[in-house]
Specification:
Layout lengths: L4 H22 L8 H23 L8 H12 L4 H4 L6 H8 L1 H15 L2 H5 L4 H19 L12 H31 L5 H8 L17 H12 L2 H22 L8 E5 L5 H13 L3 E4 L24 H6 L10 H17 L1 H6 E10 L17 H21 L8 E6 L7 H12 L3 H15 L4 E6 L6 E5 L9 E2 L2 E3 L9 E4 L2 E16 L2 E11 L2 E6 L6 H11 L9 E7 L2 H9 L8 H4 L4 E6 L18 E2 L22 E5 L5 E7 L5 E6 L2 E2 L8 H8 L1
Parallel strand pairs: 1-2, 1-3, 3-4, 7-15
Antiparallel strand pairs: 5-6, 5-17, 6-10, 8-9, 9-13, 10-11, 11-12, 13-14, 14-16, 17-18, 18-19
Helix pairs in contact: 1-2, 1-8, 2-8, 5-6, 6-9, 8-9, 9-15, 12-13, 15-17, 21-23
Length: about 700
């Protein structure tokens, strides 16, 4: 069944006209070189997508040889692969060099939007393909009308730039409502079942199914799918149970009613379908339906540096990095307000489903090749005014979403597994990760409670680095009014955040001062070398790293990807990770830099910049097993929600972890001037926590 059949039928006349015009365009010579080559290449690519859509509609790919599907997949994505990218129009450096500054940016943006239609073609939705074809033809017509004024150097006149930019602006503006409605439907409506059907209804032993997602398929996806297919059913089912049971137990921890909710949104990485199929069966046994939604790639919906739906290994992280701020072409206040209206309309349309959403169940992966981006001057960037507008939209959209999806009624879970690209030890690392994900919750809970009990006796924690680590940071804790009934720290086992292993709090900002430093850390897939962040009263005052030769490039890199283009962020979380076994796994296989935040945050103290852990659900009371209420759910920023909600949230939360071997001490400070160490020289020294050192001692041996 094609849920877009009626929509495609209504578009049929426009679709036919587009295909005919693209065919005609291939024979025309009415624009000068190099524009001619660009439009010929783009027309050929769009016609290839139309042919692909025909083959999907008539069922050809259901039975064709897998080699043909592999060839198609390569053909659709090969232009942006590293070996071809230098001379690709999607590379802003190449496009600007070829066409000039402004028009080069516009044509590179248009190239990326054309590529964004690939996944929708596989969903049998022709809308995206048709409107982007119309846009290409419109831009061609504009350039054609100026062809007499373009000399051999292809330097465009100013009015040409303006007309092309306006065409792109109104494309984004006019179709925002449709794009946002589709994204909302994917998240909330189980009837949008494209990916869920591929997972649940296909023979997963026939790896042809991988190529029907419309994503780029690498050796990672093939090998992980084959690996899971070879595993004993009991082992895969245990992985699925850990994932789904952690989700259910998250509701118990949050004190939310699991039975009130009916829809679980699944985010995962292609290749793990066998595990996801079993997970869907478990969720069904809990009385839940699922949505499995795609990570957006269009400029209207994509989020820089984040993947928030199902996806595969990136064909080229540099391509994604180069296009992370494509909204710079059209982002202004008018567009922001229009987009918010569109989002509100979409949420209103699906408000029944929104009220039934239980929250996300996320499977992350780690082990992709390390990526250090090139900061290209030709890549689009947001202006200072646009950064402000983007942050305002993110804030206002978050508040709007909260009106339809009550955060205090939802929960989530996140689990992570390695990809084959992590290296020759993949199978051993996978086996070790499974063990880490299933450590004894009760044992860790008791040990972690010792740490919490000690922390609750102090007014602050002091973190000191050792060796080359220059960390020297004092973190203020909230005052407990009734220590018998209240606590500052949540005792986190393997429920919402798998694996087990941390105690965390939302610290008091006033008086939280000092320097946070780490030699190397990966945040959202990007490496930061010698990252240093200075805090004054709990807010970021200064920052730097050593990724680039120019200090201005280092600061811009952090501002764009950690501060999310905001002037400052608050220290939203202070935590102590206790999963020494995960730490030792990282060292044993030399994969510390590849561990995801989900695991890395358990391998030492971590500090989250942005919102608190209780983002938009601060008024919902949360308790540890000992029935003590965790009172540290707010800080001086989030409490502004009661008076100035527009100032209360940053809508980001990024964990920065210091490994144990860079820790000189973590101490609890008492008002009488005394202190008690929790960690000293990388080892746990608090009474009752000695068991955590066993793995560390094994590592030394």
């Amino acid at each position: 069944m094609n849920i877009f059949e009626e929509e495609n039928r209504e578009l049929s006349e426009r679709t036919i006209l587009c295909r005919e015009r693209l065919l005609d365009l291939l024979d025309e010579q009415t624009v000068p070189s190099p524009y001619l080559e660009y439009f010929h290449e783009m027309s050929e690519f769009l016609l290839k997508l139309y042919s692909t859509a025909d083959n999907i509609e008539n069922g050809y790919y259901e039975s064709c040889p897998i080699e043909e599907l592999q060839a198609l997949n390569k053909e659709l994505y090969e232009d942006i692969l590293p070996g071809h990218y230098d001379a690709c129009y999607g590379n802003p450096a190449f496009a600007v060099h070829t066409f000039g500054d402004s028009i080069g940016h516009y044509l590179s943006y248009l190239y990326a939007e054309i590529r964004a239609a690939i996944p929708r073609v596989f969903e049998r939705r022709l809308f995206d393909l048709t409107i982007i074809s119309e846009l290409l033809i419109e831009v061609y017509n504009i350039i054609e009308s100026y062809s007499m004024e373009l000399d051999g150097s292809a330097v465009p006149v100013e009015s040409l730039d303006k007309e092309v930019q306006e065409a792109l602006y109104y494309y984004a503006h006019d179709y925002s409502e449709i794009y946002l409605e589709l994204k909302t439907k994917e998240l909330l409506d189980p009837a949008y079942s494209f990916a869920a059907d591929l997972i649940s209804k296909r023979d997963l032993s026939d790896l042809r199914y991988l190529y029907l997602f419309g994503e780029y398929i690498t050796d990672n996806e093939i090998r992980i799918a084959s690996f899971l297919n070879q595993m004993e059913e009991e082992a895969v089912r245990a992985m699925s149970f850990t994932y789904t049971d952690g989700y259910k137990r998250g509701f118990q921890v949050m004190g939310a009613d699991f039975n009130k909710k009916e829809i679980v949104s699944i985010r995962y990485c292609i290749g793990f379908e066998r595990m996801m199929k079993m997970a869907m069966e478990y969720f069904a046994s809990y009385g839940k339906k699922v949505t499995v939604y795609r990570n957006p790639v269009d400029s209207i919906n994509k989020m820089p540096g984040r993947k928030t739906g199902f996806h595969s290994t990136s064909p080229n992280p540099q391509y994604e990095y180069d296009h992370r701020f494509d909204q710079a072409i059209f982002l202004d206040n008018r567009f922001k307000e229009h987009k918010l209206d569109c989002y509100k309309n979409a949420m209103e349309k699906f408000k029944t489903e929104a009220a039934l959403l239980a929250g996300p169940a996320v499977l992350e992966t780690f082990g992709e090749p390390e990526f250090l981006p090139i900061a290209k001057t030709e890549a689009l960037k947001l202006s200072i005014e646009q950064e402000k507008i983007a942050n305002e939209y993110k804030r206002d959209a978050g508040i709007l979403s909260m009106n339809y999806i009550r955060q205090e009624e939802t929960s989530f879970t996140i689990i992570a597994y390695p990809l084959p690209s992590i290296g020759d030890d993949f199978e051993a690392i996978f086996e070790e990760t499974v063990k880490i994900n299933t450590l004894d919750n009760d044992l860790y809970y008791e040990i972690q409670q010792k740490i919490i009990d000690a922390l609750d006796l102090g007014y602050a924690a002091h973190i000191l680095g050792k060796g080359n680590n220059t960390t020297n940071l004092t973190v203020m804790l909230h005052e407990l009014k009734d220590a018998e009934k209240e606590t500052n720290f949540e005792n986190c086992t393997a429920d919402v955040n798998i694996p087990v292993g941390e105690v965390f709090t939302s610290p008091k900002l006033t008086g939280t001062n000092g320097l946070l430093n780490v030699s190397s850390v990966y945040l959202n897939g990007l490496e930061y070398k010698e990252l240093s962040v200075e805090f004054t009263d709990g807010k970021i005052k200064d920052y730097t790293c050593r990724n680039f030769d120019k200090e201005s490039d280092n600061k811009a890199f952090i501002k764009e990807n950690v501060l999310m283009n905001q002037e400052t962020l608050a220290l939203g979380e202070f935590a102590i990770g206790t999963n020494t076994r995960a730490y030792v796994m990282g060292r044993k296989f030399d994969i510390q830099s590849k561990l995801p935040i989900l695991i890395a945050e358990k391998t030492g103290p971590h500090f989250a910049v942005g919102d608190t852990c209780y983002h938009m659900s601060e008024d919902h009371k949360v308790y540890n097993r000992n029935n003590k209420e965790i009172i540290a759910r707010d800080n001086e920023v989030s409490i502004l929600r009661k008076t100035e909600i527009e100032k209360a949230y940053f809508n980001c939360h990024t964990d920065i972890t210091i490994p144990y071997d860079e820790i000189g001490a973590i101490s609890i400070l008492h008002k009488d001037g005394s202190r008690v160490d929790i960690i000293r020289d990388g080892y746990f020294v608090l009474a009752g926590t000695e068991l955590l050192n066993e793995a560390l001692h094994e590592d030394v041996k």
